[in-house]
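Researcher: Can you fold this with 2'-deoxy-thymidine-beta-L-rhamnose in place?
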Amino acid sequence: MLTRKTWDIFCTVVDNFGDIGVTWRLARQLANEYQQNVRLWVDDLASFSHICPTINPQRRQQQCQHVDIRLWDEPFKPDPHPADIVIEAFACTLPATQMTQMQTSATKPLWINLEYLSAESWIDDCHGLPSQQQGMVKYFFFPGFSAKSGGLICERDLSLQRHAWQQAPEHRQRWFTEQGLIPPPTEALWVSIFTYESPALPALLEHWQTSPQPMVCLLPMGRAIHSLPALLDPTTVTPGMIKQRGSLTIYFLPMTDQSTYDRLLWSCDVNLVRGEDSFLRAQWAARPFLWHIYPQDDAAHIDKLDAFLQRYSDALSPDCQQALKQLFHAYDAGNGAEAITAWNALVRYWPEWRKHAAEWPEQVLAGGDLASRLVIFCENRLK
Ligand code: TRH
């Protein structure tokens, strides 16, 4: 077990909430499950406060859930006490003054770049590799789905909590009353939607209006709402609004903190998610989900999407597998007609899809979660 070390985790908020979402989770886990001393340096506290409302964006330094949160701005003044371990998240460039402190410190910190999550197999060969940079060694830590990768972020007691939540159906109703919202009818199929803009979304919503089963769509405030101009003016949407069309009722929700969002995912029958962190949380909800992958200019995201689909759908029957791949690709490409065809096909495989989703988290976490692998990685190099 790693003795108590000090950690500096650096995060720049590129856009959206994924970068801070992942680093905040990791920082909390290291502090609370491994009793590590963690400082989290963030360059945008206002974005941070969207997913952690107890953060005060005006305060340069504050404690939150046993993590020391610091504003990272320029000119940057490193903490006078250099940390044992320095993590730069997603290749954010460390401040020059921080680099100088690391280079001149008597005991050089363990310097790690935490990469973006990928299911591609090439990461297995790169995970953990050292590289000489500016007179120091930097290690590359690759989160991933395989035993050889850096693993996936998942808190120790998450599956127990999720199980307890899903065992008691009254929880999903209570989630709404606790937010001051009207709970949707429980007999409907609940779908949460937190994706980027996609023309496939209005197509699916229109299709669900004629569904034989009542459908409930739960949309936290965010980019997906901009896909629905034909349905409503996005600028007029407020949390708590409800729209009904045929069999479909849409509930617009506030953004909440991460653990409240987790509980929304646990409450739904299907979750439409995106990026990196909500993508993983939907998997930990152990329910069917659709992933809207973060688009990259050179379409590099398509290889990432295929790599994930290959791993995820491997154990499914060929027809179910094909429909699942078609749905993810159609949503990504914004192809409404294809998304509807794939959805209709998948509905026929509902029990298989649901069973697979329930079994997947255990399978993929069998080799240990990311924090446990990271702690062992550091322990081995700090000996
Ligand atoms: O916000 P994202 O689109 O983030 C993306 C990706 O991480 C991508 O890889 C990265 O390059 C890009 O950002 C810059 O999607 P993601 O990763 O799902 O992050 C959303 C975070 O918001 C996640 O931590 C969950 C959190 N969240 C809440 O805390 N409360 C909420 O109500 C909702 C809807 C989300």
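Model: Folded with 2'-deoxy-thymidine-beta-L-rhamnose in place. Residues 18-33 form the longest helix (16 residues).
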